[in-house]
Amino acid sequence: xxxxxxxxxxxxxxxxxxxxxxxxxxxxxxxxxxxxxxxxxxxxxxxxxxxxxxxxxxxxxxxxxxxxxxxxxxxxxxxxxxxxxxxxxxxxxxxxxxxxxxxxxxxxxxxxxxxxxxxxxxxxxxxxxxxxxxxxxxxxxxxxxxxxxxxxxxxxxxxxxxxxxxxxxxxxxxxxxxxxxxxxxxxxxxxxxxxxxxxxxxxxxxxxxxxxxxxxxxxxxxxxx
Amino acid sequence: xxxxxxxxxxxxxxxxxxxxxxxxxxxxxxxxxxxxxxxxxxxxxxxxxxxxxxxxxxxxxxxxxxxxxxxxxxxxxxxxxxxxxxxxxxxxxxxxxxxxxxxxxxxxxxxxxxxxxxxxxxxxxxxxxxxxxxxxxxxxxxxxxxxxxxxxxxxxxxxxxxxxxxxxxxxxxxxxxxxxxxxxxxxxxxxxxxxxxxxxxxxxxxxxxxxxxxxxxxxxxxxxxxxxxxxxxxxxxxxxxxxxxxxxxxxxxxxxxxxxxxxxxxxxxxxxxxxxxxxxxxxxxxxxxxxxxxxxxxxxxxxxxxxxxxxxxxxxxxxxxxxxxxxxxxxxxxxxxxxxxxxxxxxxxxxxxxxxxxxxxxxxxxxxxxxxxxxxxxxxxxxxxxxxxxxxxxxxxxxxxxxxxxx
Lengths: 225, 407
Ligand SMILES: Nc1ncnc2c1ncn2[C@@H]1O[C@H](COP(=O)(O)OP(=O)(O)OP(=O)(O)O)[C@@H](O)[C@H]1O
Ligand SMILES: [Mg+2]
Prior knowledge:
The structure holds two protein chains of two kinds. Chain A contains seven helices and eleven strands.
């Protein structure tokens, strides 16, 4: 088992109001799976993804990643897990605006101390894998939306993480570009990567092997194909 | 290592991207370091020229003086009543002090006007000295000769003059052998001293000396002298001083329980006196000029806080990709350091330039030294770290998800 969550809760306290973004989510993901998470807006999809991606910590419950309990890790341990195990792809790309595509892809390697030469090779290989070898020295504002998202995917790939997490990766893209991006994920899955995608679009979810539906912070149903 | 370069690059890039802000950011540091470097250089220069002047006396020579260092009116009334030091005192020391190699004397000096025909130079320091004074007090003669025992014995009207006197009154002729008028009396020039420049704005080259006997005849009846003693060697200074003390106390009938009614000066004791007078002032001066450094540091802290806030999302992205707290901390700290060191280097440049300008255009000396430049760089680094640590910690402590959501 690659991912196992047991009764995850995430509660936000705002003044007198408490919002339960997650109310006891328990899911399991096998290595090499291609998975979609769906659900209405505000159902807790992003919250769950952030927990799985170790960007955030649960209020209650357990999260086991690669046989290691993530709940209870300190800041630096979480940073290490984010660097080694997880490749995150965001809806808004989240590239450093002043850095080139190449440099953006290099970042995860910088933070695990990879040497300069290997880093450059690794980043170039990742960019080639998303067909962007010819755009390496462009800055984000010199790239199209689809190209930016492919840079972000290359960045997520570069460290060979255990899982690739994508929170509405096509949310800011048109239909044609969305298809391109989904092709990339498809290819990653075929190469043996574990991929989890949050999406609102049924046809995107249909590409995956399993769909988890969330509603009001809880798992409503699971559909396996 | 790559992160260090990257942080320096980020700092430089944001400086270049926003020039006005860069100038304002660096201005505080530049002014701070500039002031400190300029002030320290002037202090250095003063200390150096004073210690050179005092050092000229030599480490084996001491002076015996009737008054010593007088710091209050009360003290002045007391020391004024002391007996004058006389030529006979000098002779007694010369005769009886075993560790004293040379014993000489000089009169107290007077400021007088020297004339040659209608040309004149004012404010000349005139004093009478024994024939061996020039050797004891290591005054360098550039041209001509010094006094002889016979000049003194016959009270000859001869003089050695400072280079300013020679240049002013004899611009086109060799002054040696020429006559000039000190006060109302004619003297023949037998030597010209070496130029010394000025110490703390006081010209050291406008002087004239005559044999002590001649001086007493014309310019002072009675009056105390200062006795100059050169000990046989440096290690025998204390013994020589003890001997001279014993001889003078006996001659002047100082009771066993009473303190000396005369004072000793050595180059060391004069340096101590100078330091004790000036050190406090230096500290205050450096302290005051350091305030601008603190201001410079606060400006840097302010700009770093702005930078951290502006780049909250960037911090979020970096954390999401695996940056640890210390990675972010270093990034912003190095950025602050880069700013403060650039400011510091510019400040050192301007400060040294100001020090040079002060040295060439005012009577104040100044001396820019390597250690003050090194200290300047160190101080700006310390300020960069001190004022950069808070913004850097603020960035390092950010929660990744909050930082990513920041608009
Ligand atoms: N930082 C926060 N503070 C307070 N409440 C929050 C916070 N983040 C999320 N929530 C709440 O938690 C719930 C789930 O939010 P989440 O972003 O996970 O939804 P989502 O399923 O991703 O929605 P969408 O499809 O619109 O992206 C929402 O009700 C939201 O208001
Ligand atoms: Mg969402």
